[in-house]
Design a protein that fits this description.
Blueprint lengths: L8 H9 L2 H6 L16 H6 L8 H9 L4 E6 L7 H10 L4 E10 L2 E9 L2 E6 L6 H4 L1 H12 L7
Parallel strand pairs: 1-4
Antiparallel strand pairs: 2-3, 3-4
Length: 154
């Protein structure tokens, strides 16, 4: 079985999350809306008005509370580009603890990381914004490093 990206993944999600038994299990669509659930639907975004559009104020609150914040980004993402993530983090004006360094998976560069006071940014080489879908091994390394409170392997 191939572990390559399946371009039909979005379709599978649409079918699965519209199954009545799945919606019941998730306590979803309890109002019986007339349109089906859709991956990356604009409907939610068009009507989203109960929280800030930017995560930056939330990051600032969490950092001030002493929580560890890790932000990760695939480096081949045209929807949520790494450059936008970096500009956003730069806007927080956090002191840099460790400058950009490559992290490794099996002696190959898995991405790059930068540590700030209160926040860690990790990139994943060759991934889009669905990192576990495109790079499951590297996503596991990222998740394990976060849980173990260790920097990405260098």
């Amino acid at each position: 079985m191939s572990r390559a990206y399946d371009p039909c993944t979005e379709r599978y999600s649409d079918v699965y999350f519209n199954l009545p038994e799945v919606q019941k299990a998730f306590h979803a669509n309890v109002t019986k809306i007339a349109y089906p659930w859709k991956t990356c639907s604009d409907i939610v975004g068009d009507y989203w008005d109960d929280s800030p559009l930017s995560m930056l104020p939330i990051y600032q609150e969490l950092i001030a509370a002493g929580l560890r914040i890790w932000v990760f980004s695939g480096d081949t993402d045209s929807v949520v580009p790494l450059t936008a993530t970096r500009y956003s983090i730069d806007a927080l004006k956090l002191p840099t603890i460790t400058n950009w360094y490559p992290w490794y998976d099996n002696k190959k560069v898995g991405g790059w990381s930068q540590l700030y006071k209160g926040l860690t940014l990790v990139t994943i080489t060759g991934a889009g914004h669905e990192v576990p879908l495109h790079r499951p091994r590297q996503a596991f390394i990222l998740f394990r490093s976060f849980l173990e409170n260790k920097p990405m392997p260098s």
